[in-house]
Amino acid sequence: MLVAAEKKTPQYWYDVADRIAAQIGKTAGAHDRDGSFVGENYALLREAGLIGAAVPIALGGDGVDYRTLCGVVRRLAKACGSTALAFSMHCHLVAAAVWRWEKQQAPTDGLLRRVAAENLVLVSSGGSDWLASAGTATLVDGGFRIDARKIFSSGSPAGDLLMTSAVYDDPEAGATVLHFGVSLKAAGVTILDTWDAMGMRGTGSNDVELNGVFLADAAVSGRRPQGKWHPLFHIISMIAFPLIYSAYVGVAEAARDAALDAAKRRPANASLIGLAGEMQNVFWTAETALDAMIAAAEMAQPGPATTSSVMTGRTVVGRAAIRTVELAMEAAGGGAFYKSSPIERAFRDVQGARFHPLQEPAQKELSGRLALGLDIDG
Questions:
Q1: Are 345 and 252 in contact (CB under 8 A)?
Q2: DSSP at 266
Q3: What contacts 316, CB < 8 A, 6 or more positions away?
Q4: How many angstroms separate the first and last alpha carbons of the chain?
Q5: Rounded Cα gap, residues 277 and 95, in angstroms
Q6: Is the pTM of this model over 0.85?
Q7: Domain annotation for the chain: domains and CATH numbers
Q8: pLDDT tens for each residue of 219-233
Q9: Which helix (DSSP H) or strand (DSSP E) does residue 89 occupy?
Q10: 9: left (phi over 0), alpha (psi -120 to 50) or beta
């Protein structure tokens, strides 16, 4: 008689994350200095079973719950923000596919089975595409020719499938965004060595060029009007951003901890005590807002109200994480200004929180329109 394997506890996965963190923390500074991709860290994630961990047990994975997955990302980020952020991009694609399979009976099980069985790494272009998408889909026999350049494709050097989109000028429906996955090893797909950024330098967030890539009709996973909010994007907003911003909270947490360690070695005075207290306040804000985002992903239904709530959390968490690291630099003193300081690296890494959609002006417009009862599509 076959006996089902016992499901691993959240603590098991936290212990796994902490063990990996201890290893990747040793090379985080070198990857930052060189701007080199954290490839060996992806090997550790694969060996530990984290690539397919969130896939349901019924589909060959470990069924790691969403909150635990966010906790794993946060723990990794305390050691290496680049590894955690790139991994969160894979995680949110898997988690969204799981949500759709479990809640909507969507046919995402084939993809999820492959992720679990083959340790496939998924790469997202969604942050740069968002509602408008980018690139062209030209109708050809049996499908489409795809020509596009996708920026910010985090984890691309270790990736297997690019989950992306392109715009088809449908003669009847008008500009239509086609969603699809394409192998990063397919003919016409080139990963360009373009990632040389201020922070998160090890994420391998390169441009990916699609030049005459053939997309079969059957490989189109979804279609939507260009530039309009669509139910799919309410799911993505709800699921993706708590995972992504778990990485930034982890970066801020590491900076806070390092600053407190440094401050404790100095004579206490009113100024230092006040800095430490303010740092605790803003970090509490980041943690609390992130927890609310995670709770929404766990319990809410996707839609404009949930998207507005999660995106508000994205703004609040981002601001608070950035401010936490700013205060950490002040509390730690001049040593935090040296390139050898993990706080200096955290200061640059955490700036990435500014640039994911919806950026603050767009978030305020969405939330303001919803609050006033206006059409969120303008």
A1: no
A2: S
A3: 285, 286, 289
A4: 59
A5: 36
A6: yes
A7: 10-120 (1.10.540.10), 126-225 (2.40.110.10), 231-371 (1.20.140.10)
A8: 999 999 999 999 999
A9: helix 81-104
A10: beta
Nearest to 349 by CA among 334, 328, 333: 328
Residue type, 308: S
The model's pLDDT over 272-310, given as tens digits with 9 standing for 90+, comes to: 999 999 999 999 999 999 999 999 999 999 999 999 999
The residue type found at 254 is: A
Q: Is the peptide bond between 59 and the residue preceding it cis, with omega within 30 degrees of 0?
A: no
pLDDT band at 2 (very low <50, low <70, confident <90, very high): very low
d(CA 84, CA 76): 5
Tokens of 373: 């009862």
Q: How many CB atoms lie within 10 A of CB 132?
A: 13
The span from the CA of 277 to the CA of 251, in Å, is 19
DSSP E strands in 130-200: the ranges are 136-140, 143-153, 161-170, 174-183, 189-192
Distances in Å between the Cα of 231 and the Cα atoms of 94, 220, 299 are: 17, 17, 17
